[in-house]
Each structure stands twice: as C-alpha cells, then as structure tokens.
Amino acid sequence: MSSRRALTMVGIWFAAAMIFAAGLFYFRDTTMGMEFLTCYLIEWTLSIDNLFVFLLIFQTFGVDQHRQLRALQWGIIGAIVMRLIFISLGVALVTVFEPVLYIFGVVLIYSAYKMLGSEMETIDFKQNKLVKLIRRWIPITHDFIGDKFFVKHKDGLMATPMLLVLVAIESSDLMFAVDSIPAAFAISKHPMIIFSANIFAILGLRSLYFLLAHADKMFVYLRYGIALVLSFVGVKMLINHYYKINIYVSLVIVIGTLIFSIFASWLKARSEKSR
Predict the structure, then answer these.
(1) For the chain, domain boundaries
(2) ∠ CA 249-257-14 to the nearest 5 degrees?
(3) Which of the listed ranges 94-103, 182-191, 210-219 does the model predict with the highest average pLDDT?
(4) In this structure, how many other beta carbons lie within 10 angstroms of the beta carbon of residue 29?
(5) By C-alpha distance, which of 52, 83, 38 is closest to 233?
(6) DSSP output for 17-33
(7) What is the C-alpha separation between 234 and 262, in angstroms, rounded?
(8) Which residues contact 75 (CB under 8 A, 6 or more apart)?
(9) Per residue in 235-263, pLDDT tens?
(10) How far apart, in Å, are the Cα atoms of 139 and each of 129, 136, 154, 209, 271?
C-alpha cells in the first residue's frame, strides 16, 4: 500500500468516525457524542503504539509487505472479536461489581509505568509463550509458503511461519486490549460507545500501519504521551466517586497531551536531520 493510498484510507476511516460522532450529537445527546470522541481518540492513540509493535513483529519474522497485508487483515478480524468479548465481560463486571473500576484504574497506572520503563526493541517475539507452544505442538514449515497459514504436506497438514506471525500479533493485541478497554470505561459506561470507538479505531489500523511503517522515528516521544494519557484516565477512575472530571476537560487533556508529544517528536527528528 502506497503512502498516498494509506493516507487516503486513514482519512476515510477518520471521516466515518466523525460522521458517526455527528450522528450521536444529533440523534442522541451532546454527552454521548463527547464520550465517543474522547474514547475514539484514546483508542486510536493506543492503536498507534500497537502498530509499532506489529512492525517489530514483522521485522523479527522477516515478513515482506505483501504478507503483512494478509497478517494485518486477519489480525484486525481477531482484534474485533477479542474487543467484543472483553467489552462484554467488562460491562458484566461493572454491572455486578462497580468497584472493579478501581482495579481498572490501578491497571492503567501500572501499564503507564511499564510503558515508560520498557523498550520494545529488546523484546524477542519468537520467544512469545504462545508462539513457543504452537512450535511444540504443531509442525511448522521452515519457510513462508505464499501468504498461507497452513499447507498440505506428505506427512499431513503443516502450519507456516505466517501462523506464528498471526499468533504474535493477536497476543500483543490482547495485551493492548487490557489497557484500552479499561481506558474506555474511564470515559463511558455505555457498551455501544465503547465498542463503536474501538471498532472505528481498529478498522483503520491496516492503512495507518503502512502510513506509519517508515515514520517510527517521527514519534519517539509518543510513548510518553500515551503513558501520560493512561495515567490520567487511571487517576480519573480512582477519584471518580469523589470528584468527577468533566468530559470536556478530559477531551482537552487527551488532545493536548498527544499534540504536545507529537510536536516534541517532530522537533527532535528535525534537529537530528539538520545535524
């Protein structure tokens, strides 16, 4: 996917999300519209960090761009199913035991702490526990066979390294879902708002990946911005019973933090390029 086409598709998915938000403002109420916008922005931002993990996975397994398209396609389908399950469980938990929101808040703050202290480049995705488990129980071909996940062999059905790539993608998305779903609950308790914000953020992932694949140096400080956003929504959850932070204030803080981190990244990349 060329950069121009990727940018066009990202714009189309963003426009679709804004049309959906406009529908909420018009047919429902301002609060639901603002909750969707804030949730969508948080989920979209978290998905950017997820995409850089996908990039590292592809580099680790030596996946070319053609195969990346197929892996991303199935990865997105799996992410949608996973988010639906997680959101349904989250709604059930909050309905039965509302104090679970405090646990969500602690999880987000801990995730922010881990994000600041970890370096993704040091992770060996081939040592992923699920990947190692599949290698142990399923015969794997040495090389990729087109973009197939399974191939017929004289000894029976065999998996290809594409299956390992997909497992690594889905397991990494599972970890990101642990952050993103609680973050959405900090903004809204409405399952439709949470799920729609997640879906709109996920649907544009494939195009966004190819737009950002060669721009990772432009977002060196984005991880810090995301960590601050996670910390904010975590604290918001913990103090919500005593002090409710206005949804407009939440939106401004999220947007301001992200813009500042992206701008700081741009300044750093520009200064390094001018040397």
Answers:
(1) 3-273
(2) 85
(3) 182-191
(4) 11
(5) 38
(6) HHHHHHHHHHHT-HHHH
(7) 22
(8) 54, 166, 169, 170, 173
(9) 888 888 788 888 888 888 888 888 888 88
(10) 16, 8, 12, 30, 49
Per residue, the 3-state secondary structure of 61-98, as one string, reads: HCCCHHHHHHHHHHHHHHHHHHHHHHHHHHHHHHHHCC
List Cα–Cα distances, 166 to 70, 231, 247, 263, in angstroms. 9, 30, 37, 33
Ranges of H-type helices in 118-221: 129-137, 161-185, 191-203, 205-212
Q: Give the count of alpha carbons within 13 A of 221, CB side only.
A: 13
Q: How far are the Cα atoms of 134, 221, 231, 257 from residue 225, in angstroms, in the given order?
A: 35, 7, 10, 6
Q: Output the CA torsion sign for 255, 256, 261, 264.
A: positive
- Condensed to tens digits (0 to 9), the pLDDT of residues 50-97 reads 777 777 788 888 888 778 888 888 888 888 888 888 888 888 887 777
Task: Work out whether the CA dihedral 93, 94, 95, 98 comes out positive or negative.
Answer: positive
Identify whether the C-beta of residue 2 lies closer than 8 Å to the C-beta of residue 14.
no
C-alpha distances out from residue 216 to 47, 48, 49, 269, Å: 14, 10, 10, 10
- Contact between residue 164 and residue 61 where contact means Cβ atoms under 8 Å apart: yes
Q: Which helix (H) or strand (E) holds 231?
A: helix 222-239
Which two tokens mark 46? Answer: 């978290």
* CB distance 154 to 136 below 8 Å: no
Distances from the Cα of 189 to the Cα of 97, 98, 194, 254, angstroms: 13, 10, 8, 18
Nearest to 111 by CA among 22, 49, 32, 55: 49
Rg for the chain, CA atoms, rounded: 20
Q: What is the pLDDT of residues 151-207, one digit of tens each?
A: 887 777 888 888 888 888 888 777 777 777 888 888 888 889 998 998 898 888 878
